[in-house]
Amino acid sequence: MKQRLLKPFLALSLAVAATSAQASDWSDILTEAKGQTVNFHAWGGDEHINSYIQWAITRVKDDYGVSVRHVKNVAPNAVNQILSEKTAGKDSGGAVDLMWINGENFANMKTNDLLFGPFTQNLPNYALVDTENKPTTLYDFTVPVDNLEAPWGMAQLVFQHDTEFVKTPPQSASELLVWAKNNPGRFTYPAPPAFHGTTFVKQILIELTDKNEALYGPVSAADFESITKPLWAFLDELHPMMWQQGKVFTDGAPKMKQLLNDSEIYISLSFNPFDASNAIANGDLPATVRTHIHSSGTIGNTHFVAIPYNSSNTAGAMVFANFLMSAEAQARKASTEIWGDPTVLAMNKLSATEKANFDNQPKGVATLSNDALANVLLEPHASWVEAIEKAWLERYSR
Amino acid sequence: MEKTRQVHPLAIFPLLTTGVFLIPVILGLLGTWLPAFGYFPAIGLDRISLQPWVDLFNHPSFFSAVAKTLISGIGASVLAILLTAILLIGTYPSRFFNAIERVLAPILSVPHAAFAIGISYLITPSGWFIRGAESVFGWFPVPPLWTTFQDPWGVSLIITLALKEMPFLLFMSLAVLPSLNTSKALWLSKSMGNGARFAWLWLLLPQLYRQIKLPFFAVIAFSLTVVDIALIAGPTTPPTLAVLITQLFNDPNLLQRTVGAAGATTLLALVMASLLITHLAEWPLRELRSAFIRHGRQTSHWMSWEKPMALVLALGIGLVYLCSTLVTFIWSFAQRWRFPDILPNEFSVRAWARVFERIGEPFWCTFWLAILSACIALVLVILVLENEVRLRWQRGRFDTSKALWLIYLPLLVPQIAFLFGFQVALIQIGWDGQFIALLWSHLVFVVPYVFLTLSGPYRKFDDRFFWQALSLRQARYPAYWRIKFPMLLRPILYAFSTGFAVSIAQYLPTLFIGAGYFSTITTEAVAMSTGSDRRMTAVLALWQQILPLSIFALATLLPALRFRSRRAMQQR
Asked: Nearest Cα to B238, choosing from B442, B72, B411?
């Protein structure tokens, strides 16, 4: 249903991007950007990502004369910074020029007018983005992106299992429950409202309700009680079979990766399909780990960079965002030896050499094929998140 | 007549010190209270309302989080002070205690989060202890399904906190003990046919408590409001209130920040109430102690259990610190390390090399912030305390503790709530992101610690030494520099190193007030600890430890060196 809605919007945005006026705008932006220092606030918990960002910083300095600082800061803290500035009336010259952002933060920043833009239509590399086949580049958490954030990478919920203990990984929510009953204590998921935890719960909800149409509309219009009833019944059964009998939860996927390495759990989850291969290469996970997904497909997503409304280095920020979307930067990012983050670009919009560059990137031993990953589920409507989180806390965190 | 009306130059320092620290406190509290009552124009809330409170009380996790906070916070504080008392009764003074004193520096310099992570490496079902049992007995081919860490009841949190706070209380006691005439009290007690316990309970602990009361209050406030340790070692569903507040402040739904602010206000009230109850509990405890001693003739017949217990405790705690640091150290060189291997199956220096490449800037930023804030705080605190001395002799009795309690406020409010208002004000005057503002924000937390470390021993100083020096030399400065300060060298150095370590530990102030323009070892370490790379986290935790370690070592070794041939000056 969503795809049908996206088509006309897409044609429109492409038409906008293609106008020749943009080109001269871009050279103005490049001139303005020269000499600016961009403060890029991005999570700094992964050394590979940090190194990749460092590489991009060097390139943008060399090619465009734009300096970028990587401020290792999580999105909520960057939002707090912007809120303080807004409270103090500092509507320009803000400390955050560009931030790595997820759907929930985007939705709320958009509602509260904390974003600069629309701007992505001005970025030459935005035309390469696969907006046709990757609808989440246009709808972040079901909220229209409206050119307010630049797509950076693709994400998809995947499961990881240790083949030393799991011979045939579960292919659905119900199989997962059966597996957990046979292997008590060896699966867990992060507690909502931690992002990975909420995503897992939404995944289960979509599976158990067979993609109920109501999930894609506002929660207020749906019968929340009866739609989520199978979800709670499922979790009530699953929790006693989980790690620590479901009485202790992790705070995110990074912690679960450690538990998987420690053999405390045998099945973990991630939002990056390349994550397992990457972690094996890095020594974070044993070579026996493999990736699997559920046969009904799993929730997919896009992660973005956005410019706060009061950034004073918007030109520099746009130049950096544009570089991050370039074929070169995206191909490098896709390599599991560098980062292993799926590209947002459309292969058919690239030149032959650019495309070959992608094809030559190592995919890693534990990564699923593109076909296996093709079945992407859309997020439920953003309003479901809060309702689900609240109901989850009511039940399991009293 | 005329002369007394003149303002003494020292008189401005209490004003300056409280003023400098009152401003951020008031701004910080305003920044918490306005959103707590629904006023938050940045997200379109411009009317006072009680909605945040309604939402807070209706939050599913709220009441349970409050209960867990109180149990773990109070439990950890009481356990910490009990452990301190047992250690003192059982081993002070002795050679063994001198040994404890020497290892205190490395113990104190362990960063809080790193210690909690270190403990988790030891006692989780896949931790070192289980691995050891597996390799010796083969009992655990896979990690057992036990709950040994992050238990829902908060036991692991209480133990982790108590083990981290006990050395601090012991350290605070060290600065005070010399002035208590312990040996004489113990000798007196023995000559009257009573044991060490009698002397401690009757004479020494009450005096000691009076002087480490403020540090103890800081321990209570810290245990109730701590976020990082509670995140690592605490219960999860629900977590403690401080963690819940942090989650609310980090919620993508910006309205939740008002609920977080209401939660922060609640936490402040909880801390205040806990401190008040602790204060009021002194009287019944005093009565109880008197009754115990009066009716407890048999004390001398009881087996003295404190000594063996203190030995076991000291060795146990030392072992925990040793193992947790060791396992962190090994992780820093690990490439692959799986259960049930006791040691990594591949080693690598990659993490060290990676960190070494880029530690320069954060290292120096950390160093300058710490050294400057500790120095400024020390000077301010000494001047304030000197002013007290002056007033005491000018007007007779002067209740010194009344005016300055306000500077402790920053320790009582969760940082994430408190910093918002301060940050807003700094942005308004255009100071945000400046080094000076960052230094100021560190001072807000460093000064209270320096003050609570130094004020007890400083107020206890026998002024007759000073007067004698004054009358002999007829000059003020030599009396200070040659007599008073050297005699107080130990507490002064302890206060300095505490302030230094407190500055290094600051994460949120560095991030918020520095607006992301400054990175320190701690911001690097925290950023890395949100990921899954244990090696990088371990390397940064060890880096984080290096500076406090050297300063604490200096503070414990320097007085001993300085007084090698002048033992009496140490007031031992």
From this structure: B72
Confidence label for A309 from pLDDT (cuts 50, 70 and 90): very high
Residue the block writes with tokens 């997919």: A300
- Are B447 and B17 in contact by the 8 Å Cβ rule? The answer is yes
Residue B200 included in any domain: yes
In sequence order, what DSSP letters do the residues of B168-212 get, joined into one string? HHHHHHHHHGGGGTHHHHHHHHHHTT--HHHHIIIIIHHHHHHHH
Residue B337 contacts by C-beta under 8 Å, 6 or more apart in sequence? A261, B330, B331, B343, B344, B345, B346
Tell me if residue A367 falls in helix, strand or coil: coil
Cis peptide before B340 (omega within 30 of 0): yes
Surface of B (465-504) touching A: CB under 8 A: none
pTM of the predicted structure, to 2 decimals:
0.91
Which structural domain, as residue segments, surrounds residue B138? 10-36+63-570
Q: Compute how many other C-beta atoms are within 10 angstroms of the C-beta atom of residue B19.
A: 11
Rounded to the nearest 5°, which phi and psi values hold at A377? -90, 145
Domains of chain A, earliest start first:
2-152+300-371 (3.40.190.10), 158-299+377-396 (3.40.190.10)
Closest CA to A149 of A123, A182, A183: A123
Spatial separation of the C-alpha atoms in residues B207 and B199, rounded to whole Å: 11
- The token pair that represents B310 in the structure block: 């203190």
Are B504 and B342 within 8 A, CB to CB? no
Helix (H) or strand (E) holding A303: strand A298-306
Tell me the DSSP string of B364-391. Answer: HHHHHHHHHHHHHHHHHHHHHHHHHHHH
Q: What pLDDT does A43 receive? A: 94
| Intra-chain end-to-end CA distance of chain A, in Å | 38
* Nearest-neighbour CA in chain A from B122: distance (Å): 13
Beta-strand runs (E) in B397-474: none
Chain A contact probe: residue of B346, B355, B427, B535 with most A CBs at under 10 A = B427
Per-residue model confidence (pLDDT) at position B565: 64
* Tokens coding A339: 């980062």
Q: Tell me the CA distances in angstroms from B450 to B180, B369, B380, one per residue in order.
A: 21, 15, 10
A259 CB neighbours in chain B (<8 A) are 126
Determine the residue type at B425. Answer: A
The predicted structure's pLDDT at residue B291:
81
Name the residue among A45, A250, A279 with its Cβ closest to that of B530: A45
Task: Find, in chain B, the residue whose alpha carbon is nearest to that of A243.
Answer: B145
Tokens of B40: 């938050």
Q: What's the total number of domains in chain B?
A: 1
Strand pairing category for A98-101 and B45-46: unpaired
The strand pair at A98-101 and A67-72 is best described as: unpaired
In a domain, B51, yes or no: no
| pLDDT of B303 | 57
A84–B512 CB contact, under 8 Å: yes
Are the C-beta atoms of B32 and B410 separated by less than 8 Å? no
DSSP secondary structure letter of residue A289: E
Q: What is the CATH number of the domain that holds B30?
A: 1.10.3720.10
Q: Tell me: pLDDT of B172 over 60.
A: yes
ipTM of the complex: 0.91
Is B3 domain-assigned? no
Whether residue B151 lies inside any domain: the answer is: yes
pLDDT of residue A20: 44
Residue A237 clears pLDDT 80, i.e. is over it: yes
Output the average pLDDT for chain B.
87
